[in-house]
Amino acid sequence: MDSYDIAIFRLVNNMAGFSKITDDIGIVFAKYLVYALAVAMIYLWFFKRKSIRTRKMLIMGFISCIISELIGKLIAGNIYYHRQPFAVLPHVHQLIVKNVGNSFPSDHTIVFFSIMTIFFIYSKSKAKYGYLILAVLVGISRIFVGVHYPIDVFVGASIGTIVSIISYQYLFNSKFLNNLLIFINKKENSIFRSRINSN
Q1: Known InterPro entries for this protein (predicted)?
Q2: Mean pLDDT, the chain, as a whole number?
């Protein structure tokens, strides 16, 4: 393990353990925010049904996330291996429970950067920078709670960002995505109609 990587890890992880408030915030970002993201995407999917652009954004986020995760697991994860900091280094502030395995790259970081990058590209408001800040905070929180090295987060962020940019360029206005959206909408409408008729 690179000494600089460990030094940066120590710098961030050593901030844990001083305040219950900051520790709890770190745990929320590192462990639970991914569930909030899933709920938010489901909410937008059903309550923004008439917005084609929103639905495209959500589908693109999902596709980019899946592709990024596959690259992270099947390619990056097989090229390089190291266990989590808490399993290797002494005196690590481990704030969440995690099974010991390959720490490289960070899955949570991949998920957030792949989806937040799509949201950033899609958004036209100044609030779009908040998406990137959120992704960065999630990545840092994984170091803070002691389950990832900076290199895990950096590579995860890179994979998610690059895949999302490429996916957006080639798929957002593609016939494939348009046809997929039409197919999904037809299936949803048929389900809703059948439920209304049954009632």
Answers
A1: PAP2/HPO, PAP2/HPO_sf, UPP_Pase
A2: 90
Q: Are 27 and 110 in contact (CB under 8 A)?
A: no
What lies within 8 Å, CB to CB, of 144 at 6+ separation is 12, 13, 15, 16, 26, 30, 95
**For the whole model, what pTM was predicted?**
0.89
User: ω into residue 105 within 30 of 0, thus cis?
Assistant: yes
How many angstroms separate the CA atoms of 136 and 133, rounded? 5
Token pair listed for 63: 């596709």
Helices (H), the chain: 3-13, 20-27, 33-47, 52-70, 77-79, 85-88, 107-122, 128-144, 150-171, 175-198
Q: How far apart are CA 33 and CA 48, in angstroms?
A: 22
CA distance 173 to 53: 10
What are the structural domains, with CATH classification, of the chain? 3-186 (1.20.144)
